[in-house]
Amino acid sequence: MRRALLPVLLLLASPALADPAAVARGLRLAQANCSPCHAVGPEGDSPNAFAPRFRDLGAREPGRSMDEIFAKALLLGHPDMPRFGMREPERADLLAYLETIKQTGAAGPAGR
Ligand code: HEC
């Protein structure tokens, strides 16, 4: 019974690492701009089969920080991805969200 609580506590604790308001804004940005191709939330598959689920981004390249992965994606763009003209504070908000969903994905029961 106590063991079962640990993943739940991790889930609850991880958003506290980032500013919740920034994370909420980042989620809205992701839903508006990225969800046509990427699975942006804790569940579901990407509509575009070639686009990694956001919750899997950290696991794909363990050595790299989310900041690096994100910077490269914005710099190089990726197939079919529209240009986003992502500037502060949008960039920071989206990054805050990606960091959070990355941790949720790693700790959550559905994390793959
Ligand atoms: C029209 C489709 C599309 C949209 C919209 C889109 N992406 Fe992507 N994204 C892709 C595809 C396809 C890939 C895989 C590219 C590859 O592996 O070469 C990808 C890969 C990525 C990666 C991984 C890059 C890497 O180096 O591993 C990141 C990060 C990313 N996208 C972020 C975003 C963000 C943030 C948004 C919204 C602001 C977004 N994408 C919107 C299609 C899209």
Question: Care to describe what's here?
Answer:
The chain has about 110 residues and is mainly alpha-helical. It has one domain (about 20-105): Orthogonal Bundle (Cytochrome Bc1 Complex, Chain D, domain 2), CATH 1.10.760.10. It contains 5 helices and no strands. It has helices at about 1-15, 20-35, 55-60, 65-75, 90-105.
The number of helical elements comes to 5
Number of strands: 0
Cα distance spanning the termini: 24 Å
- What is the CATH topology? Cytochrome Bc1 Complex, Chain D, domain 2
Largest sheet geometry: none
Classify the secondary structure makeup into a structural class.
mainly alpha
Considering the chains and any ligands shown, give keywords for the structure.
mainly alpha, Cytochrome Bc1 Complex, Chain D, domain 2, binds heme C, 112 residues
Architecture blueprint of SSEs:
Layout: H1 2-13, H2 20-33, H3 57-60, H4 66-76, H5 90-107
Helix pairs in contact: 2-5
Bound molecules: heme C.
Quick structural summary:
The protein has 112 residues and is mostly helical.
